[in-house]
Write a structure and sequence with these properties.
Helix content is about 55%, strand content about 20%. It has ten helices and eight strands. The radius of gyration is 30 Å and the shape is flat. The two termini are about 50 Å apart.
Length: about 270
């Protein structure tokens, strides 16, 4: 059974065109088309743009867009599900106190066993001889010390987890404060914590797909198509992240000045605006 990439490649070759010719015709970067034909769908690009580019490519190749897009989405969901299960297994481990105690017990094995093992390894000299010469009280102190080290490691893990949770709580408080300002439910002192609201404009010379996200609270301010000739107003607080399907098809207007994103003359765009 053919893969999605093989179907794309076959359709392109049937039209008798190269990847470069296809990329120039539909204004999509050649490396993105190469990823599609290689069944490599995890490249660094927001999913909304990947899906749009994929459909445009399939349409250009005169394929059944709905059918191939459905296959693509099923493949993406399957891949994400597999990655999610793997991440969960790696991340959500349990702190097993029984295992910790077992580790401590193995570290502080009986004096005779350690002496015997070390002696068998190096002919009964060095470490084995030293351990054999320890009194029971001295060996007890070693066991207590090892247990204390294990306890410190455990406390360090707890502190790390607690610190992470505290940071998440602080971020959540900041996002909540921002939301309260947007809704008009805010105390005077809270306003000093947030950047002032200002506006920019997106002016499209052609239809262009754009996504704008407010960095401080990860709020999506706009996601969709800005139509040719449209001058769209965006109200934002602080820095924003802008992603666009084609950098030459729009300009940004800020404080009466117009400029393009970055220095590239064409291709997809990704940048930040203060």
């Amino acid at each position: 059974m053919q893969t999605i990439g093989e179907k794309l490649e076959e359709a392109r070759k049937r039209k008798g065109i190269s990847l470069r010719e296809a990329a120039e015709s539909i204004k999509i970067r050649i490396d993105y088309l190469q990823f599609f034909e290689n069944n490599e769908f995890d490249f660094d690009l927001p999913e909304i743009y990947k899906t749009g580019f994929f459909k445009n490519y399939a349409r250009y190749l005169e394929m059944d867009v709905n059918a191939i897009a459905k296959e693509y989405l099923i493949a993406r969901r399957s891949a994400k599900s597999s990655i999610s299960r793997k991440d969960n297994r790696e991340f959500y481990g349990q702190i097993n106190l029984g295992a910790l105690n077992k580790t401590s017990d193995s570290v502080v094995a009986s004096k005779s066993d350690i002496a015997k093992e070390e002696g068998g390894y190096n002919g009964g000299s060095s470490v084995g001889s030293v351990i054999s010469g320890l009194s029971d009280q001295q060996f007890l102190y070693i066991k207590i010390g090892a247990a204390a080290v294990g306890a410190l490691i455990f406390l360090s893990l707890l502190f790390t987890v607690f610190s992470s949770c505290s940071s998440d709580d602080e971020s959540e408080d900041y996002r909540e404060s921002a939301s309260r300002v947007e809704n008009g439910d805010v105390e005077p002192n809270d306003i000093d914590l947030l950047p002032e609201v200002d506006s920019i404009y997106i002016i499209a010379s052609k239809n262009v797909l754009i996504s704008i996200t407010q960095v401080m609270d990860n709020k999506v301010l706009f996601r969709g198509t800005v139509k040719q000739g449209e001058r769209m107003k965006i109200n934002r607080r602080g820095q924003i992240k802008i992603m666009a399907s084609e950098v030459k098809d729009f300009v940004i207007e800020k404080n009466g000045k117009k400029f393009r994103m970055g220095t590239a003359k064409s291709g997809s765009a990704l940048g930040y605006l203060d």
